[in-house]
Amino acid sequence: MNPVPMSKGRIVWLSASLALMGVILSGAVTGRAPNHDSTYGGLKVFNEALHYVQSNYVDRVEPDLLMAGAYQGLMAMLDSDSEYLPPGETGDNAPSAGPADVGIVPIRSELSMRVLAVRPGSPAGRAGVQSGWFVRLIGDRPAREMSAARLGRELAGPAGSKVKLTLVKPGDPKKIELELARETPPRQPVLISMPRPDVCHLRLLRFGPDSPEAVRLALAGVARNAVVLLDLRNNPGGSYEDAVRVANLFISDGILARLRERSRERAVYEARSRDRVWEGEVVVLVDRGTAGAAELTAAALHSRGRGRLLGEKTAGVGAFQETLALPNGGALRLSVAKYQDPNGKPWHAEGLTPDETIERPREDSTGDPVLDRVLGMLAGPKRKAA
Fold first, then answer.
1. Which letter, b or e, does each residue of 65-98 get, where b requires 16 or more Cβ atoms within 10 Å of its Cβ?
2. Which class for 352: exposed (0-12), middle (13-18), buried (19 or more C-beta within 10 A)?
3. More confident of the two residues 163 and 38
4. pLDDT digits 0-9 by tens, 165-204
5. Contacts of 118 (CB under 8 A, 6+ apart)
6. Distance between CA atoms of 165 and 56, rounded to whole angstroms?
7. Which of 72, 193, 227, 333 is most solvent-facing, going by the fewest CB within 10 Å?
8. Which CATH number belongs to the domain containing residue 171 in this structure?
9. Under 8 Å between Cβ of 190 and 215
10. Residue 276: Cβ-neighbour burial (10 angstroms; 0-12, 13-18, 19+)
11. How far apart are CA 267 and CA 153, in angstroms?
12. Do 343 and 216 fall within a single domain?
């Protein structure tokens, strides 16, 4: 008798449950360091459950698909950045993304795929997509069956080509179906404007090798008595090292960030006095799409007293990953350390809480009402810079 094909989604959920059973029984979820006996016991139960499924489930299940789902379910119990990468998605075998995209940065949220950030002015941004929405389908393929890296590649492609997406808002089961044309992202990492003579709105779109120099050049043309509004909304991050360099433009000395493993400090990032270029007032605007490297810069300025945080609670992405090869040709992308603010407080899975919450309107609106409100707040008496 030939195996009856089984939906990949059902395989993922079934095998994730098996993986969860093994993890719980081994003591990993409770935070206890499992000893050899408990680990062996958990694996024994997992093997028994796997045997029952293969022997008694109403449809025959291919072992390779079942185990792939188990690996994915196991990693989903850890954090949003840890995931299983199937064979063909790692190293030199991984395909490259296309030159254009729709402006969505995805992240895994347990066994679903969530929109981490939406690039301002992108096709997704113009269509009203917001961070926090869930990606259900890309074309007719379930997004939850993909790694975040693969979903990002599927969202990219040639400029002008189109991609169909099915999304849902949190707490709303109604499906939102969109067909978006891919566009080439802007090259410049910084958008700068002067909404008032005494306020410089500096929007940093991403963190990369060109970001620190772009910010430095932007600050060079700002009057010393102005307020710099560093806008990190919907900034999904990028290079943490470049985020440290951006923070250093506003801070002359001391610690900017830390990186800590389970039992030791892996790195300490300190400011260099010669790199500071801005001594005036700074206000940092964040939202739930502010993630990773963007959170590092925000945390450094806030904890060192160099910038108030305004907006929404941030995404809570701040872990350092290593890719560990597996015998089957796949790999584990595993979080092995967490970034911390200068005081040693991590934000991974917690996010940064703003000094004053300014939420975006729930209904679609023209313009940028959050920015308008912040500009109104900055019309008051100025604070002395630290």
1. bbbbbbbbbbbbbbbbbbbbbbeebbeeeeeeeb
2. buried
3. 163
4. 999 999 999 999 999 999 999 999 999 999 999 999 999 9
5. 103, 104, 105, 124, 125, 129, 130, 131, 234, 289
6. 36
7. 193
8. 2.30.42.10
9. yes
10. middle
11. 31
12. yes
**115 and 229 share a domain?**
no
**Which of 133, 154, 181 marks a domain boundary?**
181
CB atoms within 10 A of CB 242: 23
Question: How many Cβ atoms are within 10 Å of 237's Cβ, its own excluded?
Answer: 24
* Residues constituting the chain: 386
CB 185 within 8 A of CB 101: yes
For β-strands 308-311 and 282-286, DSSP reports them as parallel
Least confident of 12-26, 28-42, 251-265, 315-329: 12-26
**Does residue 232 share a domain with residue 368?**
yes
pTM value is 0.88
Q: Do both 218 and 351 map to the same domain?
A: yes
In terms of C-beta density within 10 A (0-12 exposed, 13-18 middle, 19 or more buried), how is residue 243 classed?
buried
